[in-house]
Specification:
heterohexamer; A mainly alpha (about 950); B alpha+beta (about 170); C mainly alpha (about 500); D mainly alpha (about 90); E mainly alpha (about 120); F mainly alpha (about 110); C: mainly alpha; two-stranded antiparallel sheet; globular; disordered C terminus; F: about 110 residues; elongated; binds sodium ion
Chain lengths: ~950, ~170, ~500, ~90, ~120, ~110
């Protein structure tokens, strides 16, 4: 089976486990075990080749664009890790079946565990760095899920978030590093990268890459100063802790260091950063572990410490140090996993993990106690156990360290000190829990754990002992291939033996044990001393930091996006002002080459009136009624300007739109306050004045620059083709209904939607209806002035005739559907004013929604008709017919299109008015009482 | 006068206006005008309340000419009043009792008054709050504003004889 | 078959009109049925068009048979058609979602959605600047109305801001068009691009003004800093299904920038080539920063998602401003991904809010989500995708974005900002999710009395979120496709003319 | 001569418009302003008719007609607002 | 004359912008209306100013540029639709919020999660 | 100079004068009610003069008669009184002060 099956099988297993809710616990566990066992079999199947020094590959070409491929490899290092991941994984699965109480969901835990296992397997087997990162992030996610397994506990949620944040940050750094690395080498394939160590180290990006990748590794493997997430991850169920913190999650960081060792290691900076970080972590972890009263806390810091130890080893500039590191990876995994499991049993059976309560457990659970003591001894580095072997190798290698120059002697000293503390906390683990008097207030009556719950521990302890006694037999070969994978082929000569004779490392071991015993015996004083130190907890820093960041963000956002429309508008306008204004200064001359028209009286008066109207609108803007009158002047003058500059169609349109707009504004004014209070400070007014003046100057200048220069435009085409191609002499109208009919279709759609939207806005709206005007006058009694009512009836047919006139001539002379529609609408508005909406609604029995839809539909069908002739949408058609008596008559599809425009305009305007009319007509009583909108 | 041809006078008027608008007497325009002249009143019929119809068209045309003439003189009079010194003007509100109650004749009278010498119709009393109904037979008054009132009684008399009486006669009410 | 180019615009229009007319106008059931059916047909049309374009390359379609530059020409290249597909797919999902009851909370929901789709597709397809304006207005007016669908008073204020700002934006658009026409005498994008390279002297400055104003308008729609401020409130106050639909709207702005920027202001177009690149670039970076701050500051989930849209807009524009093929390709991939994921998140947030009683979607302790697993799975997936974590589509996008910016040499500023923003968003979203789903007042889920989620809603959300894994599984063809689309964008018309096509 | 007459009448109309705007700006009451606006509408019709005469074209006739119609509606609407507040009650 | 025209456009833009920057919906709508006048004039001017050459084919040689005219027509109609909508939205906002103040007040932030 | 030109010129001058006088009245008169007279009458007739002038002019200069200008006149004649009426109504409603010494103020009923 190909390598990619390994993660695939565990993924499938994860899915299967998640659906196993109906199975019994034993069945669930059994089903779950299938996937890792198969995966293990696959790995073992390839193991002989690996032991022969080969690397097994499996490559699927995938994203060439990104250089991401599905690429797996199995070399010594990978094999070692897969065995650890799968082996300890199986034990944890087995153990969890007994650990988890009935009310917790076993399938959920198993699904997450297998997902996590997949991620880990993916990391260690990746041959593509991006793929590696993929699985790396997957471990972050799945560990988040595992840590927050008991999600109703605040501790679990916080711990999970912290773990995810820290490892996520590292993951992003790692990604950056890997991308740069890939760019240096030109490939994301690991074998290429690993073979290009020299090229990488000579690259100018080497330092940056290294730091980024190390950030990834250090955060994951909880190196100082990123170590603080790990103790809080202990909120997870203990099997999870056992898995994550012995063999997997934290080891991923170590794996990364080992994996990239050939590519990145061997430089001063590598040794300096890695070894110093490892050393610091080693010391801090060992020291703090002693003071943790929580068993899992102790183990957590011990884990940190041991990870520091491995890191330090990888940072020491000798090949044997690397071998020692790998050896310790194995050893740590075994004894730490068993210790966690033992802790789980203690927790499970007593209900607490507090060492101040736990005493004398030996009496209650001798088997567990024995197992735990063996493991703890291994952790302390007691001879005949595997921990001793690797620790002694470690001591030996510290003696060769050169990296601190003349101060290099510090390293073995500090290492011994750390060893002493590790002995001390191991001693505490043994003595404080299993001996040391009687238990205090235990929640449960303790007793020995179920038989099978101890099995995984027994297996692990057996390994500890076997490795400790017969190292060559058991680990030599795997250690050999793993080391050669890290050191790229150069297999160092190493010899693991229990006895090397009396030498310095042995002395260091002895010192450590002695020191440890001394420290432990002085623990009372140490605890007191520790209590006087300020508690510097990474967790609080993280949480407070997060709080500070969050509240800072909230403050900034509420300052920035403060809900003030004025601010948003002013930002927009200022942006415009800047970017439209700046290029004006680049121009040499604003005025272009065209001969300007002379100013005549006509223009002067028109300009005067327009400016007066505009300025008056601004001056009176707080007296809204007057402002409305003033803006009417502007509208009128704009249409006069259109008339003046040869745009009769525009003038007509502007006029009709103007009136309908004013009517709408007045309707609005009725429901709005009549006057605007003075609100803006004078500074603000000044600011607004400056900005608006600026806008005026800029736009005016652009306008002036444009109108004074010659234009080479496409418009001649329209003039030439209007009659021959569009069948009309009014070029503007032909553009509207033919050349650019698509715009017009969109435009009437807009109008229709606006009407629908307005209906929507006003539907069932409770409104405030003033019973007096702004000066407190009651409204006049006469609703429908007599003379007006009479005349408006007379005017209606007249207005309709005029709109028919304007409609029909539109194609050839100024006019058209839109203007005609607005004229009709205005005529009906007059009826509304004169007779009121009830009167109209009794007589005008149309459904405006349908009218609007039909109008647009007419235009649409007119355009779609050309499909019948396999012509593009809106292809126009016209022809001249000789009708008897009438003479030569033109029929054009554009007329139908224009009819659609007409119908839509009438429908939309009427719908708006009818919606507004409905507000007040339905319920006259409302106008008497002031009902401010309250739903 | 039926459903399909509700207002012949309106139709004729519309046709004339149509031809005026198009400046054309071609058959096509007449045809189109006729179609419109017939179809528009059908559409607007619901919006037209029942008004008394013109009983004496000839008199109506004569009255129209009278009013046009009066408009010209009125305007010249008013122009002189405007240009002349304001201080000598004697503005006044005058209430003219009406013999008519229907909306259309009153409207016509009020319009005539507004267009003719120095007077502007201001209000029709009594004010009705809702829609005007023709079966309401309460006596009505026309309030007018006079720019320069010489003799109130004479003015009322003049309005009643010169304008109101012919309108009453035209509509036969 | 040539006419299919215009169908993505016409069919939604037709659908909307049908939905307004009898018999669809009357009964809710008929309307729902018709709306879903019509939206599905719309999607099918778009897919057909896409395959057509894949077969025979970019299509142009002269409306009314008036050739460019005189008439309005539709320009269906891969990117445009992909986006119309995306829009119709999103609409279909939102329509299905709304059929669970949201549509009946106000009038004209279905027609308006189809109108919106028409506007969006029109904006994507058109090759004419003024026509672009018209379709902008179509989609805007439809969006104004949709924004007020089942509105309460918070919506009203948000809508008011949105409407007024966009009206100012429309005015600016027109000034821009006036300036462009006044200098160049044409409106067809290709023609404008050809003419702009021949400008001299002061005309260049004027064209620059026009171009800047255009970009400002597009930036306003795309929610680029500092013009983004309307977005968080507007989107978070809109009905979630509407907000989900709006996820495509900022993309219209982005698309317009891509379209205009790479034709009119392509590096080869004379004195105005790559105009304002720096401004766009820095504004985009600032947008990412502010969006991220917004994500962290959000007190409710809807606002959080709205801010995610801001971040995605910033990211997109940063890529677009590079005017480089890889970056554009990455932008295309990321655009599809982020649109759908953000939409899914909006809908998901709605589901969450519907089950948490009074607390609704606020990020605080509250009632547990009753159907926690059903919603949680999709929320988790969408969150992963939006953060850019494996195994969902976000990670491909993220890598591509980083790679593209690296190759451009623009990583010194972009990478730190982008990566730190990613991290903060990761923290923000995770924190929000864990509070909403896990930090509960009562544990007794069985006692909570909420209506189970309507199956339509579940389908819609799952289908939307399901695209994300799909985009990973089929990452190879999709990335190749994006690259091909980007290649079409970057074919410089001036170069094409000289060399007789690439 | 007709040409100079037209110019002269233009001047008169221009003066009239300026008088209108003076009243419009001065008020003092809102009905005064509406009256002035209404007058302005009519004077604008005069200007446009004269402009058509000046340019020897009847293209602007419809504009004049529309101003007449729409100006009336506008005046009525403004007054109705003063009287009743709600235009279409 | 071009100068006067441009001055008009500038004044309209200035006045419109000033009104848009007010804090109440009605002046803002007035400002938008005024701005749209200005914009229409501007867009129209992009085809240059011509006197007495309306684009109605009549055998003459020169015509005003008809394209901007058509564009302005479209813009006017769209502007009308938008103004109508914003006017009604202002009414709606008044009904919903009790005033016509466009900015978010500090108190209005206390949003409750209740949705209908 | 043709006779129609004379006619047109006179009508134009007359119309212009009347319109100007109407606007003068608007400015010069002391109260609202008196101001109203100018625009409703003088301006209306002035418009009629102008329109008749245009009618004559176009009828002579172009082929066929151009009578449509008369429509505007008719329209103004119909609407001017109504505008005046509704304006006075609103003035009364606003209780605008009439010039001192205006007779019959008490005849205005409360509306
Ligand atoms: Na103890
Ligand atoms: Na009403």
């Amino acid at each position: 089976m190909a390598l990619f099956w390994v993660p695939l099988i565990t993924t499938i297993g994860s899915l299967i486990s998640s659906r196993a809710a109906k199975l019994s616990r034993n069945e669930t566990a059994a089903v779950t075990l299938i996937a890792p066992l198969i995966a293990l079999a696959v790995c073992l199947y390839h193991a002989p080749a690996v032991f022969n020094g080969e690397t097994v590959y499996d490559h699927i070409q995938w994203l060439d664009v990104l250089g991401i491929h599905l690429s797996f490899r199995l070399d010594g290092l990978s094999l070692l890790f897969t065995l650890l991941i799968l082996g300890i994984g199986c034990l944890v699965i087995f153990y969890a079946r007994y650990y988890l109480s009935a009310k917790d969901s076993l399938p959920k835990l198993y699904a997450y565990l297998l997902l996590f296992m997949t991620a880990m397997l993916g990391i260690v087997m990746s041959n593509n760095t991006i793929q590696l990162w993929f699985f790396w992030e997957l471990t972050s996610i799945s560990s988040f899920l595992l840590i927050s397994y008991w999600s109703d506990k605040a501790e679990a949620r916080k711990g999970a978030l912290m773990a995810l944040s820290i490892t996520g940050a590292g993951g992003l750094a790692l990604l950056a590093g890997l991308l740069i690395l890939g760019n240096i080498v030109g490939s994301y394939q690991l074998d290429v990268i690993l073979a290009s160590g020299d090229m990488i180290k000579q690259s100018q990006w080497y330092e940056l890459t290294l730091v980024l990748i190390l950030l990834g590794a250090f955060t994951k493997s909880a190196q100082f100063p990123f170590h603080f997430w790990l103790p809080h991850a202990m909120a997870a169920p203990t099997p999870v802790s056992a898995y994550l913190h012995s063999a997997t999650m934290v080891k991923a960081g170590i794996f990364l260091l080992a994996r990239f060792y050939p590519a990145l290691a061997g430089t001063e900076i590598w040794f300096l950063i890695v070894s110093l970080t490892g050393l610091t972590t080693l010391l801090i972890g060992a020291y703090v572990a002693l003071f943790k009263h929580d068993l899992k806390g102790l183990l957590a810091y011990s884990t940190i410490s041991h990870l520091g130890l491995i890191t330090l080893l990888l940072g020491l500039d000798t090949e044997l140090a690397t071998v020692a590191a790998i050896f310790h990876i194995i050893n740590h995994a075994t004894f730490k996993a068993s210790l966690f499991m033992a802790t789980g049993i203690i927790d499970h059976e007593t209900g607490t993990r507090d060492m101040r309560k736990l005493n004398g457990m030996w009496k209650f659970m001798p088997f567990t106690a024995t197992l735990a003591m063996v493991s703890a001894a291994s952790m302390a580095g007691v001879p005949l156990l595997n921990g001793f072997l690797s620790k002694e190798m470690f001591f030996a290698e510290t003696l060769h360290a050169q990296l601190l120059g003349s101060m290099s002697w510090l390293i073995p000293v500090l290492a011994t000190a750390a060893g002493a503390f590790s002995v001390a906390y191991s001693a505490r683990f043994i003595h404080d829990v299993f001996f040391n008097g009687d238990p205090v207030d235990l929640p449960k009556q303790p007793h020995e754990a179920p038989r099978y719950m101890r099995v995984p521990i027994e297996i692990l302890v057996a390994i500890c002992i076997l490795v400790g006694m017969f190292p060559n037999l058991i680990v030599d070969s795997i250690l050999d291939v793993a080391s050669s994978a890290v050191l790229t082929g150069a297999t160092p000569v190493f010899e693991i033996a229990l006895w090397h004779g009396f030498n310095l490392p042995l002395l260091m071991s002895a010192l450590a044990v002695a020191g440890g015993v001394v420290i432990y015996s002085l623990r009372k004083h140490l605890f007191q001393f520790q209590a006087t130190l300020p508690a510097l907890e990474g967790r609080y820093m993280f949480e407070q930091g997060l709080d500070v960041v969050l509240s800072w963000c909230q403050k900034r956002i509420s300052q920035f996006e403060n809900g003030s429309l004025q601010r948003y508008t002013i930002v927009l306008i200022a942006t415009v002002l800047f970017f439209a204004g700046a290029p004006l200064f680049d121009m040499q001359k604003l005025v272009g080459g065209n001969q300007p028209h002379p100013i005549d009286m006509f223009n002067a008066v028109g300009t005067g009136l327009l400016i007066a109207g505009a300025v008056a609108t601004v001056i009176w803007h707080r007296h809204r009624m007057i402002a409305l009158i003033m803006i009417s002047i502007v509208g009128l003058m704009v249409s006069v300007a259109f008339t003046r500059f040869s745009a009769p169609d525009l003038a007509l349109t502007q006029l009709s739109v103007e009136v309908v707009t004013v009517v709408l504004l007045m309707l609005a004014l009725f429901f709005l306050p009549q006057k605007t209070p003075k609100e803006s400070s004078s500074i603000r007014v000044l600011r607004d004045l400056m900005i608006s003046t600026g806008c005026g100057v800029v736009v005016g200048s652009i306008c002036y620059a444009l109108v004074t220069r010659p234009l080479d435009s496409i418009s001649q085409f329209f003039v030439e083709n209007a009659k021959t191609g569009g069948g009309g002499t009014n070029v503007v109208n032909v553009i509207l209904v033919d050349f650019r009919g698509f715009d017009t279709l969109g435009e009437i759609t807009v109008l229709g939607i606006a009407a629908l939207g307005i209906y929507k806005l006003l539907n069932n709206l409770p409104l405030f209806m003033p019973s007096t005007d702004s000066e407190g006058r009651k409204w006049a009694r006469e609703k429908y002035p007599l003379l007006l009512a009479t005349i408006s009836q007379t005017l209606l047919p007249l207005a309709l005739l005029v709109s028919a006139f304007i409609f029909i001539r539109g194609h050839n002379l100024p006019g058209g559907g839109f203007i005609a529609g607005l004229v009709t609408a205005t005529a009906i508005i007059l009826q509304y004013i004169a007779h009121g909406s009830n009167w109209i609604n009794d007589r005008l029995l149309f459904n405006y929604r349908k009218i609007i839809a039909s109008g647009v539909m007419i235009a649409f069908i007119c355009g779609a008709g050309s499909f019948l002739f396999d012509k593009p949408f809106l292809t126009s058609w016209f022809d001249y017919f000789d009708i008897p008596l009438v003479g030569k008559t033109e029929l054009a599809s554009a007329m139908i299109f224009d009819l659609g425009v007409y119908v839509t305009v009438v429908g939309a305007t009427m719908m708006i008015l009818a919606s507004l009319g409905k507000l007040t007509a339905n319920d006259e009583a409302k106008s008497e009482t002031k009902t401010i909108g309250a739903k | 006068m039926n459903r399909y041809f509700p207002a012949p006078s309106t139709s004729i008027l519309l046709l004339v206006i149509w031809l005026l608008l198009n400046n054309s007497l071609s058959f096509g325009q007449v045809l189109l005008g006729t179609i419109l002249a017939i179809s528009i009143p059908i559409f607007t019929r619901p919006f037209t309340e029942q008004n008394p119809s013109v009983k004496r068209p000839a008199l109506a045309i004569k009255q129209l000419l009278v009013v046009l003439l009066d408009i010209i003189t009125a305007n010249i009079q008013v122009a002189i009043l405007i240009v002349g010194p304001n201080k000598r003007l004697r503005p006044a509100f005058v209430k003219v009792p009406l013999d008519m109650t229907d909306a259309l004749p009153i409207t016509l009278l009020a319009s005539t008054v507004s267009l003719t010498p120095g007077t502007v119709s201001a209000e029709v009393y009594p004010i009705s709050e809702e829609h005007h109904t023709s079966d309401n037979k309460t006596p009505r008054y026309l309030l007018i504003h006079v720019l320069d009132l010489q003799d109130e009684a004479k003015l009322i008399e003049q309005i009643k004889t010169r304008y109101e009486a012919p309108i009453k006669e035209i509509f036969g009410c | 078959m040539q006419h299919i180019v215009v169908f993505p615009i016409l069919f939604p229009l037709f659908s909307a009109l049908l939905l307004l007319l009898p018999p669809c106008g009357k009964s809710v059931k008929a309307r729902r049925f018709a709306s879903v059916g019509l939206a599905a047909i719309s999607l099918i049309i778009n897919i057909c068009l896409l395959s057509h374009v894949l077969d025979i390359g970019t299509l142009t379609y002269a409306i009314g048979n008036w050739q460019a530059p005189f008439g309005i020409v539709l320009h269906a290249d891969l990117l445009a058609v992909t986006l119309t597909c995306l829009a119709s797919f999103l609409s279909l999902c939102c329509i299905v979602y709304s059929c669970a009851g949201d549509d009946a909370k106000g009038s004209f929901f279905h027609p308006l959605v189809h109108f919106l789709l028409m506007g969006v597709c029109g904006a994507f397809l058109t090759g004419d600047l003024f026509n672009l304006f018209v379709f902008f207005e179509v989609l805007l007016i439809a969006s104004y109305s949709l924004l007020m669908h089942a509105a309460d008073k918070h919506n009203t204020r948000g809508a008011l801001h949105y409407v007024i700002l966009n009206l100012v934006g429309s005015a600016i658009f027109l000034i821009a068009l006036g300036t462009m026409y006044g200098v160049l005498g044409s409106l067809n994008i290709q023609d404008v691009a050809a003419r702009i390279s021949q400008l001299t002297n002061d005309d260049v400055s004027l064209a620059k003004i026009g171009g800047s104003l255009l970009l400002i308008v597009f930036a306003l729609k795309a929610a680029l800093l500092p013009l983004h401020m309307w977005l968080p409130n507007t989107y978070s106050n809109a009905m979630p299904v509407v907000a989900a639909l709006f996820a495509i709207m900022t993309k219209v702005g982005v698309y317009s920038i891509i379209r205009v920027y790479n034709s009119i202001f392509s590096p080869g177009s004379g004195p105005l080539g790559a105009m304002g690149q720096d401004v766009l670039w820095f504004a985009a970076l600032a947008t990412i920063v502010v969006g991220t701050i917004g994500v962290l500051a959000s007190k409710d989930l809807r606002k959080l998602v709205a801010n995610l849209i801001v971040v995605s807009a910033g990211t997109l524009i940063a890529l677009v401003s590079l005017q480089q093929m890889q970056a554009t390709a990455a932008a295309i991939y990321y655009l599809i991904h982020s649109t759908l994921v953000c939409a899914a998140l909006f809908l998901c947030v709605d589901l969450i809010a519907s089950q948490r009683g009074k607390v609704a979607d606020r990020i605080t302790t509250g009632r547990p989500v009753k159907q926690g697993l059903l919603i949680g799975v999709v929320f988790f997936a969408a969150a992963l995708a939006v953060i850019g974590m494996p195994p969902l589509s976000g990670f491909v996008g993220k890598i591509w974005i980083l790679k593209a910016t690296y190759q451009q040499g623009d990583y010194a500023l972009f990478w730190p900002i982008y990566l730190v923003a990613s991290l903060l968003i990761l923290v923000g979203v995770t924190r929000a999710g864990s509070i909403v789903f896990w930090q509960n007042t009562s544990k007794d889920i069985d006692k909570i009395d909420v209506k189970p989620i309507h199956k339509f809603k579940v389908w819609a959300v799952y289908i939307l979120a399901g695209v994300s894994p799909f985009m990973v599984i089929f990452a190879k063809p999709i990335t190749d496709f994006c690259l091909q689309a980007a290649m079409q964008i970057h074919q410089n018309p001036a170069v094409t003319q000289l060399t007789g096509g690439l | 001569m007709l040409g100079s007459v037209i110019i002269f009448v233009f001047a008169m109309l221009g003066l009239a418009l300026l008088l209108n705007i003076w009243r419009l700006l001065k008020g003092p009451s809102v009905p005064d302003r509406i009256l002035a606006l209404d007058t302005m509408y009519i004077n604008t019709i005069a200007v446009i008719v004269l402009y058509g005469l000046h340019n020897d074209t009847s293209l602007y006739f419809e504009a004049a007609l529309l101003i007449a119609m729409l100006g009336f509606v506008s005046t009525v609407a403004l007054c109705k607002y003063l009287l009743r507040g709600d235009l279409i009650e | 004359m071009e100068l006067l025209y441009s001055v008009c456009v500038g004044v309209l833009v200035g006045c419109g912008v000033f009104l848009i920057l007010r804090a109440r919906s009605f002046p803002i709508v007035l400002g938008l209306t005024m701005l749209s006048y200005a914009v229409n004039l501007f867009l129209f001017a992009s085809g240059r100013l011509t006197i007495n050459k309306a684009a109605i084919l009549s055998g003459s040689e020169q015509y005003a540029d008809p394209l901007p005219q058509a564009l302005v027509l479209t813009a006017i109609v769209i502007g009308f639709a938008m103004t109508a909508f914003s006017v009604i939205l202002a009414i709606r906002a008044r009904a919903d919020l009790g005033n016509d103040y466009v900015n978010q007040l500090a108190q209005a932030n206390n949003k409750t999660g209740v949705r209908k | 100079m043709m006779i129609y030109e004379w006619l047109v010129s006179i009508l134009l001058l007359l119309g212009g004068t009347l319109i100007l006088i109407g606007s003068i009245g608007l400015v010069k008169m002391p109260d609202f009610f008196m101001r109203l007279h100018g625009p409703t009458k003088a301006t209306t007739l002035g418009m009629a003069c102008l329109l008749i002038a245009a009618m004559i002019y176009f009828s002579v200069t172009t082929a066929g008669y151009s009578l449509k200008e008369i429509l505007i006149s008719i329209f103004l004649l119909i609407t001017a009184p109504i505008s005046g009426y509704i304006l006075i109504k609103s003035a009364i409603h606003h209780k605008l002060a009439a010039k001192e010494g205006t007779q019959g103020i008490d005849r205005i009923e409360k509306d």
